[in-house]
Amino acid sequence: MTRRMSPTRRARIFEAHNGICHICGQQIDGTKERWDADHVIALEISGDDTDANLAPAHEKCHRAKTSTEDVPRIAKAKRVQRKHQGAHRPRQKIPYRRFDGTPVYPK
Question: 7-81 adopts what CATH topology?
């Protein structure tokens, strides 16, 4: 769920970064191009929704960053957290057979 950001806060973030996309480094024309206020470190990882963690980004750059960088990082952070909390179930060892056909059951 995306929260709405006030126009004043969007303008403050845009001005703080001189209107430069933090992903591609190009100038954003705020009147002609669509742009988003992007969390530099994903909100689900850091939990930080302050202006210091927000930067302007072209809409296309933001979508690409989210799908290629943020989603895998968030998934990994969740896996690590579940493992740390003990919710991770280790894989079961699979019995195998020797070349002569006798079964071996790992301990």
Answer: DNA Binding (I), subunit A (1.10.30)
Q: What is the DSSP string of 51-64?
A: GGGEEEEEHHHHHH
- C-alpha–C-alpha distance, residues 46 and 39, integer Å: 9
Domain layout of the chain by residue ranges: 7-81
Q: What is the pLDDT along the chain (107 residues), one digit of tens a residue?
A: 456 889 999 999 999 999 999 999 999 998 899 999 999 999 888 888 999 999 999 999 999 999 999 999 999 999 888 888 877 676 777 777 788 878 777 66
Rounded to whole angstroms, how far apart are CA atoms 64 and 38?
Answer: 12
DSSP codes joined into one string, 13-76: HHHHTTTB-TTT-PBP-TTTS-EEEEESS-HHHH---SGGGEEEEEHHHHHHHIIIIIHHHHHH
Q: What is the pTM of this model?
A: 0.70
Longest CA–CA separation in the chain, Å: 75
